[in-house]
From TrEMBL:
Keywords attached to this entry: Coiled coil, DNA-binding
Protein name per Swiss-Prot or TrEMBL: AbrB/MazE/SpoVT family DNA-binding domain-containing protein
Domain of life: Archaea
UniProt cross-references to InterPro entries, sorted A to Z: SpoVT-AbrB_dom (IPR007159), SpoVT-AbrB_sf (IPR037914)
SpoVT-AbrB domain mapped to chain residues: 4-45
GO MF entry, a single one: DNA binding
C-alpha cells in the first residue's frame, strides 16, 4: 500500500508498480466512506469473456439466481 497526494491541479500519480500491474485507465467509484479505483481493461468485452469463460448457466439463469438470493437476504 502506498500513500499518494493530489498535486495543485488535482491530479493523482499512482506508483509505477501499480500502473504496471493494473494499467493506466481506471473508473472512479464513490463509496460511502471513500473512493475505489477500478482498472479498465484495454478490451473490456474480451475481459468479460475471459471472466465468465467457465460459466455454464445462461444470463437468464444467473439473473434469476441473483434475484432469489436477494429476496432471501431481504427476508422474503
Amino acid at each position: 500500500m502506498s500513500d499518494v497526494t493530489l498535486d495543485a491541479r488535482g491530479r493523482l500519480t499512482l506508483p509505477k508498480d501499480v500502473r504496471e500491474r493494473h494499467g493506466d485507465r481506471y473508473h472512479v467509484v464513490e463509496l460511502h466512506d471513500g473512493i475505489k479505483l477500478v482498472p479498465i481493461a484495454d478490451d473490456p468485452l474480451e475481459a468479460l469473456r475471459e471472466e465468465f469463460e467457465g460459466v455454464e448457466k445462461s444470463a437468464d439463469e444467473l439473473r434469476e439466481e441473483a434475484r432469489e438470493m436477494a429476496l432471501d437476504e431481504a427476508g422474503r
